[in-house]
């Protein structure tokens, strides 16, 4: 792993707040990106001016002790003169590192996420995982009706062992058979899931796997297993939804990041809130996977669904089809006319978004309002890749180089996004 640092600075308020994230995992991992996006969205939405520093202990790919030694060196050199107001740790390894380095940023207010229970005394705020896996397991078994559970897990690092032991202790409370694919290499794992028995499920804890020269993140691991698994797959995070899991009771790293932002804002404004915070979860499902495993009638009706099709339209008679196409032609004509009028209006008001197409402008509005790319794809019935391409075009046309500059540009010109 190469430790990555990001730096963001916004000039919306008088006071600059320094925030340091010490994470477990990889800065490019989907969980990390989603969490950081939620934090930035919360601070940006409240016009907080901040510097954000991030470093990650990639214990899933490299030796934990070596990562600790490297981090100690990095903090004593690169960050020697930095004393952030807020230190946020994510994951057991980061929590353990803080415990071993209690003098790290001594004046910082500390926020702990997915930390070891015995380490909560080291934090000013921490997010509780009470009953996290109990509800995840309960919803998985209710939805699937399975009588045996196969678990993909690692326990070769403290971080992996922490989540593995937590999950297994809850699963053992249920009257189901349990088989664990522990520390298994990816090729053997793929072969093992090809012939799982009936009435079984596969639960994937968030682990990275090496395959050849490539290191697969948890989302990529699930995606590959989904291609061959003979049983439905479950996991514990919404960032894997759409990549091969059925869904269920899932954590939301984006909402978790927003909650950390709310803590920072409360401290800045002098408001006191409870030290113990609740981790953010939701019921969410992938309709394609529900249909694949004949589980559509069992999903909670109040849950969030992706890939859910529109209701079937009844068959038209011949004259109704003709009328439909006539109305469609009129609609397209009127749409084109409205487009030309609006384009002329854009030119007259010198909108900074004049270079964007109508669809690109709609995507930009969604981004401004904090909607994730996955939700935008669902709203517009587009693929994730198509929405990502739209975002790239927007950034090119607005001449911004990264996501932070894009957010800043949108907020600066928000009057054009109404």
TrEMBL record:
Keyword Transmembrane helix found: yes
InterPro entries: Sig_transdc_resp-reg_C-effctor, Tscrpt_reg_LuxR_C, WH-like_DNA-bd_sf
HTH luxR-type domain location: 349-414
Keyword Cell inner membrane: no
BP terms from Gene Ontology: regulation of DNA-templated transcription
GO molecular function: DNA binding
PANTHER family xrefs: DNA-BINDING TRANSCRIPTIONAL ACTIVATOR DEVR_DOSR
Protein name (database record): DNA-binding CsgD family transcriptional regulator
Species of origin: Spirochaeta isovalerica
């Amino acid at each position: 792993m190469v430790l990555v640092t990001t730096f963001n600075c916004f000039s919306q308020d008088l006071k600059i707040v320094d925030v340091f994230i010490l994470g477990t995992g990889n800065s490019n991992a989907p969980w990390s990106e989603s969490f950081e996006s939620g934090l930035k969205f919360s601070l940006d939405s409240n016009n907080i001016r901040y510097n954000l520093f991030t470093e990650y202990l990639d214990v899933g790919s490299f030796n934990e002790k070596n990562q600790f030694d490297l981090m100690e060196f990095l903090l004593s050199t690169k960050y020697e003169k930095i004393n952030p107001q807020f230190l946020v740790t994510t994951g057991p390894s980061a929590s353990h590192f803080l415990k071993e380095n209690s003098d790290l940023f001594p004046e910082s207010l500390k926020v702990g996420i997915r930390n070891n229970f015995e380490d909560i005394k080291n934090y000013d705020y921490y997010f509780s995982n009470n009953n996290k896996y109990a509800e995840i397991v309960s919803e998985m078994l209710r939805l699937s009706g399975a009588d045996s559970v196969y678990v993909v897990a690692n326990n070769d690092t403290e971080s992996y062992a922490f989540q593995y032991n937590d999950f297994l202790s809850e699963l053992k409370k249920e009257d189901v058979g349990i088989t664990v694919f522990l520390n298994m290499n990816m090729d053997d794992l793929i072969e093992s899931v090809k012939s799982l028995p009936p009435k079984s499920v596969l639960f994937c804890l968030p682990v990275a796997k090496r395959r050849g020269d490539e290191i697969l993140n948890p989302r990529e691991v699930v995606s590959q297993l989904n291609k061959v698994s003979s049983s439905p797959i479950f996991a514990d995070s919404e960032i894997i939804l759409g990549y091969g899991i059925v869904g269920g009771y899932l954590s939301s790293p984006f909402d978790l990041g927003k909650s950390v932002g709310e803590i920072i804002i409360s401290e800045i404004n002098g408001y006191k809130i409870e030290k113990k915070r609740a981790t953010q979860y939701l019921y969410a499902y992938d309709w394609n996977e529900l249909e694949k495993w004949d589980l559509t009638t069992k999903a909670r009706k109040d849950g969030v669904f992706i890939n859910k099709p529109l209701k079937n339209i009844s068959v038209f008679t011949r004259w109704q089809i003709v009328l439909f196409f006539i109305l469609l032609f009129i609609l397209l004509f009127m749409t084109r006319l409205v487009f030309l009028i609006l384009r002329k209006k854009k030119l007259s008001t010198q909108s900074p978004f004049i270079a964007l197409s109508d669809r690109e402008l709609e995507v930009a509005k969604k981004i401004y309002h904090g909607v994730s790319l996955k939700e935008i794809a669902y709203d517009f019935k587009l693929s994730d890749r198509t929405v990502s391409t739209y975002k790239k075009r927007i950034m090119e046309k607005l001449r911004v180089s990264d996501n932070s500059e894009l957010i800043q540009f949108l907020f600066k010109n928000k009057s054009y996004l109404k």
